[in-house]
């Protein structure tokens, strides 16, 4: 027996087919409730390992575990119906060997029901990307600034400011695309480099602090909503929800302290009146 839905979920090949066409709208999501809100407007919901920093207040994404990614991946799949859900492979779950990567990726796919995984790295990860895609696991690549490498990079600074660095970043993007990635995140690179990579590779590029000429864009949802404590310079804020939430919590605390909290039957009557 199969479970049918009136809405067809986008797949990795659907996103792959958008190269040079309608831009891909992508956002991060870590919860069922944000997934439900974003799903109507997004083609891709990425359960990014940025959740370690955004949700858990960690200093980097390095401590994020496979279990954390699977738990939030399950929530986002449950909360969405149309978008392709991509789950990040956390640091330490894939770098050792293509076989280790397959075991982690298969766990993510089986336990969350997501449609693809994402991993960081260029030339050095090409063999792994080919191994996974040939075995039924769609992979989104991630080049440019790769935050999981923070301990070797030293800081989250933009890549390719010096043109001498461009050939290495271009080679990374090309290797990932040729290995079979269905899309490639290009993070924090100089604008002309982001545009050049987009022209050069066959896979759609999904820019974040890269170039408006990428085949799509992604932002961390909490950054564009003004909920993150530290936001990269390139992020455009579409809302400033922090003060709204603080004001609502303050009003609630005031009511509780003043014992002005309505009884359940009053709340029910108020709702009935509104309806
Ligand atoms: O972890 C994440 O949220 C990401 C995006 C910033 C692309 O990798």
Write a concise keyword list for the protein shown above.
8 strands; globular; 2 domains; TIM Barrel; 12 helices; eight-stranded parallel β-barrel; 275 residues; binds 3-methyl-2-oxobutanoic acid
Protein described:
About 40% of the residues lie in helices and about 15% in strands. With about 280 residues, the chain is an alpha/beta fold. The protein has two domains: about 5-240, Alpha-Beta Barrel (TIM Barrel); about 240-275, no CATH class. An eight-stranded parallel β-barrel has the order 1-2-3-4-5-6-7-8, surrounded by six helices. Helix 5 (about 100-110) links the parallel strand 3 and strand 4 (about 115-120). It is globular. The two termini are about 40 Å apart. The model has no long low-confidence stretch (mean pLDDT about 95). The structure holds 3-methyl-2-oxobutanoic acid (KIV). 3-methyl-2-oxobutanoic acid binds near residues 185 and 187.
Mean pLDDT: 95
Main sheet properties: 8 strands, parallel, barrel
**Share of β-strand residues:** 5-15%
- Radius of gyration over alpha carbons? 20 Å
Distance between the termini: 40 Å
The CATH topology name of the largest domain reads TIM Barrel
Structural class category:
alpha/beta
Short description:
This protein has 275 residues and is an alpha/beta fold.
